[in-house]
Every structure is written in C-alpha cells, then in structure tokens.
Amino acid sequence: MTRTLLSRVFGDAALTFDPKWALFSANSFIAAMLAIYLAFRLGLQRPSWAMLTVYLTAQPLAGAVRSRAVYRLLGTLLGACAALTLVPILVDQPTLMSVAITGWATFCLYVSLQDRTPRSYAFMLAGYTATTVAFSSVTAPELVFDTALARVEEIVLGICCATIVHTLLFPRDVTGALMKSIDAAVRDASAWMADALLNHAPTKADSARWRLAADVTHFEMLSTHLRYDTAATKPEISAIRALQDKLALVLPMLTAVEDRLAALGNRCTPELNQLLSQLGEWARDPVEPRLSADELLRRCAEFEAALPAAQDEWDRLLASSTIAKSAALIEALAAAHELSAIIHGSKATSELTAAPRPKIRRARRNLHRDQGLAALSVVALFAAVLGCCTVWIATSWPEGATAAQIAAIAAALFSSLDDPAPTLVSYTIWTVASLPIAAIYLFLIFPAIDGFPMLAASLAPSFLVLGYQQANPRHALKALALVLGLIGALDLQNRFSADFASFINANAAAVVGLAAAFLAVRTFRSVTAKRAARRLLRHGWVDLAILAGARRPMNRERWLGVMLDRLGLVVPRLALSGTDVEAEAGRSLAALQMGLDLLDLKSSVVGFDDRLSKNLESLTPKLSHAFRWFATGNSELHPTEARALLAAIDVALREHGAWEPAIRRTRLTALVGLRRALFPNAQAPSFDRVTQ
Asked: Is 254:210 a contact under the CB 8 Å cutoff?
C-alpha cells in the first residue's frame, strides 16, 4: 500500500532507488535532528526554525550548501537589523509600520532580482526576514530584540548543522560537477564543428546545440559556489570565465559558417573544400591533430590572400567570409581546449597551439536583467503583504501576522519564475496535504512517545522519504512544500503541547498568506511562456538597435554574454509555448551574429577617415530603425525600407577595394554577415563599380 501511495504522489520515479538522493536525504535528516536536539538543549524559543533552516539550506552539492549558508546568514542578519531599526520607531503607527516593513521587503526583492546568481538569495532573505521578525513583534514590541536574536540564533544553528553534516558525510563537490559539464560542452562544440565542416553543409540545429547557450550561463552559476567548495583543488574562476567567453563564440560562428556554405552551395571550389576538410579533421581530434591550430590558421590566411580576383566577386566574398569565420572558430576552440586543460590542473597543457597561454581576465559576466518583470514582482509582493496587513489590522485577527509573513515569503521565493501562480497553487496544495500528516503526529503519535530518541525515530520514515524526493528535480517543489508545511505545523517545542484550535488557526493563516500571494501574483505578475519569450526577443532587438546607433563600440564580451544568456533563456520558453523553436531561436541567434558583426564593423572605422566611415553615418540609422521594427514583433521590413538598407550595405561592399589592407578583412566579413543575416534570399550584389 505504501508503494502504491508513493507511486500516486511522486510517480514511478518514487519506486526507483538513487544512492545520491538517498545520501542527500539521510544527511538532511541527520542535520535536522542535530539542529532540533541542540535547540532543545539550549532552550531556544522556536526550535522548529532551526529544523526548517536545515531543509532550506540543503543542496545536492556541498559547495552549494556552504555558499547558501553564507548568503542565508548575511540575509538573516541584514533583515533582523532592518526590523530592529523600524519596529521601535513605528510600533505606535501600525499602518505606517506595515508600509515601511513591506517597502523594505520589496526593495530587497528588487535588488535580488538584479543578480541572477546564487548571491541574490542574501537580499531576498533580508527582505522576508524583516517581515517575519517585525510582524512577530507587533504584540510585544519591547521584545523585538529578543525575537530578532532568537531568529538569528536558530537560523545560525540550522545553517551550522546543515553545513557540517553535508560537508563531512560523503560530500559531492561542485568542482567535479563543473568539470563534467565543461568537458561535455567542449567536446560537443568540437563535434558540431567537425560535422559542419566535413559535411560542407549546414546541419540542423538541435536541442543539444541550443543547450550550449544555457550551459555557458550554468557555468557562471556553478562557479559562484567554487570558493566554498570541498574539493582539495579548485579551478581558477578567471579561467572558467575565459572559457565561457570562448564557448560563447562557438554557436554564432558555427551558424555563420553553415550559412556561408549554404549560400555557396555547389560553387565551393576544390581548394575551399580541401581546406574545410582539414579544419574539420582538426576539430574531430584537436588534442592530437595531424596539423596544429597555428598551421591551420596560417593556411586560412594564405587561402584568403590567394583567392582569385577573376572569380565571381560575391562568391569570393562568401568564401573569404567562410574562412574568416572558420578561423575564428578554430581559435576559439583551440583556446577552449587549452583553458579546459588549465581548469583541470594540467601543468603541461596540450600543444593545441604555439600561441601564448590564453589571456585570462577576471571580469564579471553580464547576464540578462528584466527591469519590467522585477518591478511587477515588487508590486505583487507589496500588494500581497499589505492586503494581509489590512485584514489583520481591520479585524484584529490574532493570526494575521502569520498570514502576512507567509505572503511575503511566498511572493518572494517564486518571483524569478515567468508565471509564479501555478507554482504557488502547487505549493499551497502540497502544504495543505502536509496538515493531515502533522495532525497524525501531534494528536496520535507524539502523546505516546517520550524522549528525543523516540521523537527522532517517529519522524524518520516521513522525513527520509520526503528528503529523498526533495533531491529528485522532478519532485523537489512538492517535497519541499510537504517538508516545510510539516515542520511548520508540528512547531516542535521543548515541552509537548497540542491544541486543535491553535493548530487549525495557525495553519489556516498560512494558507491565507499563500492565497494572498497567489492572487497578487496572478493580478500583477503572471507572464505566459510565450509572452516571456517575446520579451526576451524584444530586449535583444532593442539592444541591437542601441548598439547600431551608439557612437562608440560596446564591450564585445558584455554584448556576447547578455545575448547568449538570452538565447539560453528563450529556447525552453519557446518550447513550452509551442512556438517553432528553430525559427524563433534562429532569429535570436541572428541578432547575436549581427551584433558581433556590428561591433567588428564599428571597431574597424575607429581612426580611419575613409568612405566607409562616411557611409556608416547613413547605414547605422537604417540598421537601428530596422532593429526597432523587429523589436515590435515584425519578422520582415517594409519593402521600401528593405531596399534602402540593402542598397546601403551594397554601396559599402562595392568600395572595399579602396580600404586599407589591415582592416579590409574585418570590414568585409562584417558587411557580408550583416547582408546574409538581414537578406538571406537577396540576389548577389553587383560589383560593376568595384574599385581595385
């Protein structure tokens, strides 16, 4: 019967056994029992807070547990200090105090949403910790310091127990997981390049290739935990970020190469086919290649220099662009393999290239931020908490403080989701489902037991099963809701006391708080997957328009990081919305490619006073206007504007013979890339007036 119940609640996965999940569950339970035991012995006010903290801090990787512990501690201290500052001043003005405390929580939430790394947890916690301490102290404001101190003590106790147990008992380090992810990404990137170049034709992008964009951001998340990791040797964070920069180039460069090959079709010359085959063979085995990366780069340069002038001019430019992009791809992958060797700790890195060790910078990576959704999240939290406070003050409801606290926590915890409403519904359902279990413990089991060993033995079956499911990504949310709901409803104290009326009132207040958060989120914050994808695409086109109109070139790594991050975010949302992933994600990737080409084009005119510099003054406004048009959701330009923009690009291309040789290659590659991205089906330009 137990197996049938587990299967119905958690699916068939509940009947399988994963040792890693079992170890996680055992560690969490041991830490929770240690925390509750010490809280009992120390006589703390709310021992259940310590147990709650253990399960909120627990993570599959030991480094993630330790980093989360640090951020949780900082957030708790900051939130407690905010409550200690505001409550004594405003205790006689309940409405004003409610507004001030909620304002603090919304400010912290907004700040946390500006940082999509695990560091944001500290600010989020600072917000709802202040509401917990402040609203718990309204009836006894003179004890606000004691309440804040108790909150800090019990959270510190839970943090310490979770950290010690997950660190000492068979820890899983972040470094190993990061290494595996890096190896897979580098290996896949090489395989994709080999496939494209050896087949001499575009390969259809699949979900694995799109995942590379998300992987680059995932490395950023994992590297945040490295300084707290348990591994004996840890890779350099700066080397990981340099590797991210190189891998970020793979997707746009590879797509550009495939596009040029598709444009050339069967017009590829034997010499071009031979060189592409050599590049593909290198990508297939870059660790022990027959030709080094430097030798291949030299051959690419010689091929471009020797392209016959008698060949069709547009085909010649396409061939030159193909080789230029392929060379850039070779450089990026060679550097990625070398950086991977450095990250793995190889003292003698592979002889992939005779070039100096890749330049390693410690620049922070830029990720996408949606200020609009952050503002809506703030509004939803403000409305949910103030709504509860209004009912609380107007009715003098004794449990109103609990409802306001839960509303703040729920509205903050799921604020990073596109549409938190369904998640809040699920969380509420599973929280309510935990109440019968808690009632069985409180009114049937606990009265029959005596002493801590029997308490731990009675709790073990439920918490070991729920902890096991918490480790399963598919069931983590429902398991966490059951765990937290059960701990909150049990409210373990030094002396056993169970009152049915108090049990119903307290948990009804928690459900009201969750309902208030749901209503506020549904009203102000819900965004469908389709709408979220459109917002991401629009942000990309708007940034591209700004880039086109900017007088100074933007930082290349910053642009690449933000746009690739958006691509990694938009693909799963397109899939959820039922949209054609290939078409829409391809447009997003095209925007990324055009941004790189624009950056190259703008950098090539700095310090040069020639015709292209003057032509850009008329070309870039047209580009900026076109990108803003795409940002409104249009997939095609008006015919008149399209002809004008195409003509402006072709005018610039016709004058390439007059450019300085030092920057000619960069300019031509950029202009060819822009023309192919914007007008893939346009006829070849006329070069009757080419200046030689």
From this structure: no
CA distances from 412 to 78, 386, 470, 525 (A): 16, 14, 20, 12
Q: How many other CB atoms sit within 10 Å of the CB of residue 578?
A: 9
Buried b (16+ CB within 10 A) or exposed e, 1-28: eeeeebeebbeeebeeeeeebebbbbbb
φ, ψ of residue 526 to 5 degrees: the values are -65, 130
Q: Is 365 left (phi over 0), alpha (psi -120 to 50) or beta?
A: beta
Contacts with 548 (C-beta within 8 Å, 6 or more apart), sequence order:
598, 620, 621, 623, 624, 627
Query: Do you know the residue count of the chain?
Result: 692
pLDDT band at 458 (very low <50, low <70, confident <90, very high): very high
User: What's the CA gap between 631 and 544, in Å, rounded?
Assistant: 9
In this structure, are residues 5 and 461 in contact, taking their beta carbons and an 8 Å threshold? no
| % of residues, the chain, pLDDT over 90 | 34
Position 240, amino acid: I
Any idea what the Cα angle at residue 219 is, between residues 213 and 222, rounded to 5°? Answer: 145
Q: What burial class does residue 523 get, using C-beta atoms within 10 Å of its C-beta: 0-12 exposed, 13-18 middle, 19+ buried? A: middle
| pTM for this model (two decimals) | 0.85
Can you tell me the distance from the alpha carbon of 444 to that of 460, in angstroms, rounded to the nearest whole number?
A: 16
The HSE-up count of residue 204 (CA atoms within 13 Å, CB side) is 5
| Dihedral angle, C-alpha 596, 597, 602, 603, nearest 10 ° | 70
* Whole-number Å distance between alpha carbons of 72 and 158: 11
Per-residue model confidence (pLDDT) at position 365: 66
Q: Is the pLDDT of residue 615 over 80?
A: no
What 3 state SS string does 396-460 have?
CCCCHHHHHHHHHHHHHHCCCCCCHHHHHHHHHHHHHHHHHHHHHHHHHHHHHCCCHHHHHHHHH
**pLDDT tier at 552 (50, 70, 90 boundaries)?**
low
Question: Which ranges of 200-312 does DSSP label H, i.e. alpha helix?
Answer: 207-224, 237-264, 270-284, 293-305
**pLDDT reported for residue 585:** 78
pLDDT, tens digit (0-9, with 9 covering 90-100), for 380-411? 999 999 999 999 988 888 889 999 999 999 99
Residue 354 has pLDDT above 50, yes or no: no
- The torsion angles phi and psi of 303, rounded to 5 degrees, stand at -65, -45
Per-residue b or e along 369-403, where b marks 16 or more CB atoms closer than 10 Å to that residue's CB: ebeebbebbbbbbbbbbbbbbeebeeeebebbbbb
Q: Is 112 exposed, middle or buried (0-12, 13-18, 19+ CB in 10 A)?
A: buried
- CA nearest neighbour of 422 among 311, 330, 517, 300: 517
Judge whether 546 and 538 are in contact, CB under 8 Å: no
As a whole number, mean pLDDT of residues 358-386 equals 80
Q: Which residues of 284-318 are buried (b: 16+ CB within 10 A; e: fewer)?
A: eebeebeebbbebbebbeebbeebeeeeebbbbbb
Q: In the numeric block, which tokens belong to residue 319?
A: 């061939």
3 state DSSP class of 555:
coil
Distance CA(23)–CA(170), nearest Å, equals 8
The CA distance from 513 to 246, in Å, is 47
What is the distance of C-alpha 77 from the center of its chain? 26
